[in-house]
Backbone:
């Protein structure tokens, strides 16, 4: 888990979500949620890992800039909408 601020200064948490099942390849994905609202988040299914340990290690090395960029990407795909923390509106304002 890693805390960061979105482009509007709102606090977010980047963490890992795991899917149950027999398919272990890529079962862990990147998940963002506003701080204190874990059920109002968005998954970024482009970022997957085979193990929880690898996911946590990779997440720990991600910078705030990279996390903001990935959050904008996830929200821009309709996975959580721009109304959550203004993350998607920041991408529209910058022309990204």
Residues:
């Amino acid at each position: 888990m890693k805390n960061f601020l979105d482009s509007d200064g709102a606090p977010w948490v980047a963490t890992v979500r795991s899917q149950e099942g027999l398919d272990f390849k890529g079962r862990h994905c990147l998940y963002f949620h506003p701080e204190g609202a874990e059920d109002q988040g968005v998954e970024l299914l482009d970022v997957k890992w085979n193990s929880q340990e690898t996911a946590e290690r990779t997440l720990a090395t991600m910078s705030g800039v990279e996390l903001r960029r990935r959050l904008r990407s996830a929200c821009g795909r309709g996975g959580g909408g721009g109304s959550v923390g203004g993350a998607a509106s920041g991408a529209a304002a910058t022309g990204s």
About this structure: The chain has one domain: 2-94. The two ends are 26 Å apart (CA to CA). The first strand starts at residue 2 and ends at 5.
